[in-house]
Write a structure and sequence with these properties.
single chain; 2 helices; globular; SH3 type barrels; 6-stranded antiparallel β-sheet; alpha+beta; 105 residues; 6 strands
Length: 105
């Protein structure tokens, strides 16, 4: 590469303590089926189509809903608490519900 090439740049040497780098990342979303029992989470995204979103909304589960996982075994439905109502969700449905733990937990 010749000097003055647009692909060449000068990088000053820095010590690790010279720069405080913080990665700006969004919230870590995980599917509801991976949340252990007893954990409270907030729904952030629904990956299913309109049909799933409509069904879940009819049950009281929508974006920003607080959800507490009551039962999550390795097979069978998940049992969750949403707005003082216990709801059984199939594994396929729970896989499409992306959640995050609320701050301060």
């Amino acid at each position: 590469m010749r000097v003055g090439s647009p692909f060449m740049c000068m990088i000053p040497s820095m010590n690790a303590g010279d720069v405080d780098v913080k990665l700006m990342t969004g919230p870590q979303l995980v599917s509801l089926n991976k949340i252990p029992p007893g954990t409270s989470v907030v729904v952030r995204k629904l990956e299913g189509g309109r049909e799933l979103a409509t069904r879940l909304a009819a049950l009281g589960l929508s974006i920003e809903s607080q959800v507490k996982v009551l039962q999550n075994r390795s097979h069978g439905p998940l049992l969750v608490l949403v707005r003082d109502t216990r709801i059984a969700l199939g594994r396929g449905q729970a896989l499409k519900i992306l959640v995050e733990e609320p701050e301060g937990e």
